[in-house]
Amino acid sequence: MTLQDYLAAGALAAGVLALPAAWAAWSSWRTARQAGGKDRFRDQLQSLRDNQRALTRRMLAASPEHLRQSNLPVLTRPEWMRLVPFDLADVKIEWLDESFDDVAKFRRASAKVLDKIQIAPITRYSTALIEIAGLTRLFDGVIYRLVDVELTADSKRMVFTRSTYFADLDTSEVLAFEAQTSRRRSYRRRLRDPFDFRKRVAGLGIDTLTIRRDGERAGFFLLQRDPKNVVNNASMIGVIPAGEFTPSDVSGEAVSRDLDLWKNIMREYAEEMLGVPDAQGQGGRWIDYASESPYWELEMARATGQLQVKVLGLGVDPLPWKTELLTVCVIDAEVFDEVFAPVPARNEEGIIIAGDRRNGLPFNEATVDRYCRAHNVSPNTEACLRLAWQHRAELGLG
Fold it and tell me: Of 85, 340, 367, 398, which residue is least crowded by CB atoms under 10 Å?
């Protein structure tokens, strides 16, 4: 071998020997980068929760003027809020059997929101919430995906198809995280229209302001939401009950049988006021609404007029573009106390705010105004309170 051959062989050997060290250095750099990304995700998520009201107001102000109402912190179509409160039963629910294969495309588009944070290989918001933020109680259950809605004096209809909760988190709720972490908000600009429900998976939240009516006195109930157990409006004060429009379990029979707004509200009452586990969308058995408590008591009260559920409107939270059906349930004190008393101090989602005597915060102008102005009240809750107070005469509350 020539001298050049020896030198070349030596250089090759040195390079081979250096490979493990280079791999170790690269691996160490990658691990440090991922750890830094996870810290950034947690920090930004906490900042989102801390600044949620300010961010919501900013997104509201940046939205087209024709989608805003002067006294409400939600986006809405003008015709949706011109209606006086109407009975929940007036809403016609339609099912779309069409098969949608667009979720993967939506997720690819929304994955860019997390690119800046550098948490690869994680590309889904739902995964980051579980694996980084520690929200291990999140459950990827079936939801009813909203694809069309019409609320006018002549027609009240909502059209749904089948999807999953994590698809909603990954393609809609992620908008709130993007608002916190990006000034350009490319994903939001790509979607453009908050009411085009076919460009993302949009679950329906049902928010019910519960009012206990006792003669001339009325009291309402709220929930301080625990960020360890909830995603939407975490750390904020919300109405109780409130939840996703979902079937009671994942079976095909439940998906068909539970496509009913009132059944969903009853299950939320059972879960949030009474701690009934089978009401949480993960149950393995069917619910007998006709004979099980509290369902049959609530059904009977509604049939006799001692309980009334009215729709106040439909709004979209300007931060995560969460679509919310705003409702109010007025319950006579006798029925309320028989079914729900004593009202618990807390549930799995947070602390129940029920007033000194646990029979509700006074439903009067001063109390309603105080909570509407509070920095940690969710926009949908403020909307429910303002609309219920505005229409209190129609609701039989003064």
Answer: 398
